[in-house]
Design a protein that fits this description.
A hairpin with a 3-residue loop joins strand 7 and strand 8. Among the domains are: 209 residues, PUA domain-like (Roll); 222 residues, SET domain (Beta-clip-like). It is globular and about 80 Å long. It is an alpha/beta fold. Strands 1, 4, 5, 6, 7, 8, 9, 10 and 11 form a nine-stranded mixed β-sheet that branches. Helix 3 runs parallel beside helix 4. One of its GO terms (molecular function) is histone methyltransferase activity.
Length: 690
Amino acid sequence: MEAMDSVAVMEVTPVPDPLFVGATPLIPAPPESELVLRRSARCLGRPRVPVYAEPQEPKQSTGRRGRPKKKRDEENQDPAPQVAAKVPRKTAKVEPKERKPMPVVGPEPVPADFTGAAAEDDALGTGKSAKLRVKETLRAFNSHYLHLVQEEQKRAQAVIQEIAAKGAAKNKDGKKGGEGEAKEKRPSKRPDLKAITKMQENNSFLYTEKVLGPIPGIDVGDQFYSRAEMVVLGIHSHWLNGIDYMGMKYQEKKEYENFTFPMATCIVMSGIYEDDLDKADEIIYTGQGGNDLLGNHRQIGSQQLNRGNLALKNSKDNGNLIRVIRGHVAKNSYTGKIYTYDGLYKVVDDWVQKGVQGHVVYKYKLKRLEGQPSLTTTEVRFTRAEAPRKISELPGLVCDDISGGQENIPIPATNVVDDPPVPPSGFVYSKSLKISKGIKIPSDCAGCDCEGDCANNKNCSCAQLNGSDLPYVSFKNIGRLVEPKAVVFECGANCSCNRNCVNRTSQQGLQHRLEVFKTASKGWGVRTWDTILPGAPICEYVGVLKRTEEVDGLLHNNYIFDIDCLQTMKGLDGREKRAGSDMNMPSLHAENDSEAPPAPEYCIDAGSIGSFARFINHSCNPNLFVQCVLTNHHDVKLAKVMLFAADTILPLQELCYDYGYVLNSVVSPDGKIVKLPCCCGAPDCRKRLY
């Protein structure tokens, strides 16, 4: 149970449930002879996080990964000479006397030593930016979390089946099954806490020692979906208590020799105490203890001046900076809350008084330091970048729905860059893959005989293909991929399970509200209107399925995607193997066990036919990853190419993935290396696409 935090709960202003209204299809007809942009390349995806291990750096590629995708990053560059080069494809307690608070002069400025510290790299010697290390730590946590959710769901299902079996046996004997037995074996609801333990065992916390002041890589406004995420990052090291502090062991460290301990480092405010007052830049914070922890904010006993309460009092005397995090109710979070980092404060006063219920409570006045980014929370509500309620509210609207009604949810397009604004053009929208003549898709694989959802059948044959467990867990009726895999086997046309089976996740169509928008420097891009959780499906990359030999001579087509699942499974050409790469190849398809060619045999050309996926931009620090999926057949050379969320993606953030280009892989006919700058803007940008 979430407890021992402080201040009034602030409701997240929800994104409205109704989808876009008044959508009208508008699809410009593409010129017949024009192949506009060419997507080519295999995506690296996110580095696979080994189960219960630290995230590992992706291997550097040593060879060809497919043709690169010049795409929109090229649009703002000087035009390069047209060369007939072969382009590679794209292929993470004492009770003081009661007194009143003393008046305080205005807020202090942020000390110069701390200005901008959150954006700097620290001295961990990893060669990575602080932002990237934060992202990798969260990915490791989510990997553990999803594995543990999967374990918990299996255990819970086994418990339910056991109780049902015992109940049936008792009913047969004329006895009633006991309700207390079901309660005794109810499923645990805290796989996030188990994930903390796993990361602690592997020493994979971002910071194992407590830190004063800002945490490098964490900025004002950053959000977290559980207290556990904050624990593994070191921003707040206790999953329950509202006050985090340095204990007496820290007084032995030379850098803290002038401080009094214990000393507070961070507080979390989430509406547990009825005596709190939050005025954003000024906080009246109630100390810890004496709360009934039942969520009704009532004090049932007096607090004592020890532990966190004493730490906050000492922090006033020490003058040290304290991180403040506010919790907000959020229905789309698995914990029911979102936690926002709101910057640095100082304790400027403390006193003791009798609370609303007549019990002794300790009070602390904190003031926010000046010179920080604006607050993302207020006393009234939690403000964030919010999506419009309907299409007509969109500035620069150029198309109500680029899918023409094909997708589950309309996808509007906006353009506030061009004058006059124009919609995306030069292609025909299709939500499904088109097959070139001469290519036959196998359809002879056997299906499972499960009833209902395969998650309820421990003997599911499709689960066995995936290594005994289904690749997905379900969250609010949306499947989430537990981890990137070499290949995912989904239930198909020959399976007897229902169409809503969790193992049909990639077949459910668009699940989130998206928008295609014109960027300032990268052409068209795609952003979300909803919060998307790690492992959630985004879309399939569709176009025309072709043999690679058909497109090798084409120019000006940056929308070609190599299907290199087989090459990845075999670890060819510097590709990084994923979970499941060591599966017995004949069990997939007889042809797959032969020597795999260095280059993929098939590709997807979205140059003239495709979906919104063709507009998703490259980033050297992406929030999506690529996953090969098999449904109605087991030929990995013809696998579906899917995009999944690698991180928690907040509303109005752009979707992006790594195109996986190899540097210096494009050579002109005269032997010169063709170079294309990267415009992704990520902190760890490689500066070049190829």
